[in-house]
Design a protein that fits this description.
InterPro entries: Methyltransf_11, SAM-dependent_MTases_sf. This protein is an alpha/beta fold. The chain is built from nine helices and seven strands; from the N terminus they run αααβαβββαβααβααβ. The protein is globular. The chain binds S-adenosylmethionine (SAM).
Length: 253
């Protein structure tokens, strides 16, 4: 399946994203990403594009705390809060027409990541800033272990590695940004998410289904049943299911 079709399928409704974002209520020493992004925009005046805006939490934060900015939310999916539907690889904006852009946890969905970054460079005026958040390559390794153990239990054979879309563009991909931006800085975070609610973990795992090409012959509902039993066992034993969140935020000028 091509990447654009995969994104449209995955975000046809908001429930997949809500299941994933919902677990962050259990993040230790929480990182308030909308506040981090707003702080990186402190010297910006004028127009700010929020591409891949999703349900609009960054746009809402900026509108509440920076009413002087003109925030323009856009998203590929009609189910999200964008004021226009747009693909990050072909933005309906004039060259140098915005003072900054947010691309928060979305560049890994772009059909062509270098083209998306070049397109963002095109619409941001010289001297403007791109703020982009993404995950580490080693984000939530517990999901890979759950996948491997559950599929092995189900089929008796080791499965192919879990396809994790966010690994298409990670905090280690500064060089891809440097092809378009002279200055690229990244701040990295590591925060455990300690989840006491098995249903929340299972909803998270189930939410990545639409982003995947399943190995031939694998029955997703059978996989979820086995994975759910493992999650429940871990929570009964340890009180929580741990996901080690590793992520970061780029500021590019
Ligand atoms: C993980 S969500 C992030 C939402 C929001 N930025 C946030 O941080 O809460 C990714 C969003 O990117 C959008 N998206 C996926 N592919 C896209 C593309 N090629 N162009 C624009 N938006 C895209 C999805 O529809 C979804 O709303």
């Amino acid at each position: 399946m091509d990447q654009r079709a995969r994104s449209l399928r995955q975000y046809a409704a908001r429930d997949n994203l809500a299941a994933r974002q919902g677990v962050y209520r259990w993040q230790e020493d929480p990182v308030d990403l909308p506040a981090v992004a707003a702080d990186l925009l402190r010297d910006v005046r004028g127009a700010v594009l929020d591409i891949g805006c999703g349900p609009g939490r960054h746009t809402a934060h900026l509108r509440a705390h920076r009413p002087d900015l003109r925030v323009i939310p856009m998203d590929l999916s009609a189910s999200m809060a964008g004021e226009a539907r747009a693909d990050v690889c072909a933005l309906p904006l004039r060259t140098a027409s915005v003072d900054a852009a947010l691309a928060m946890h979305m560049l890994y969905h772009a059909p062509d990541i270098p083209a998306a970054i070049a397109e963002l460079r095109r619409v941001i005026r010289p001297g403007g800033v791109l703020v982009a958040a993404t995950n580490g390559h080693d984000d939530k390794p517990e999901l890979d272990a759950l996948w491997t153990d559950s599929v092995r239990e189900l089929t008796g054979a080791p499965p192919p590695p879990l396809f994790r879309e966010p690994r298409r563009f990670t905090v280690d991909d500064g060089p891809v940004l440097r092809a378009a931006f002279a200055e690229v800085e990244v701040v990295r975070y590591e925060r455990p998410v300690l989840i006491p609610d098995a249903d929340a973990v299972i909803a998270y795992v189930d939410s990545i289904r639409d982003g995947m090409d399943l190995p031939a012959g694998l029955d997703w509902s059978a996989f979820i049943e086995v994975a759910a039993a493992r999650v429940r066992h871990t929570i009964a034993r340890d009180g929580v299911f741990r996901l080690t969140g590793r992520f970061g935020v780029f500021a590019c000028r």
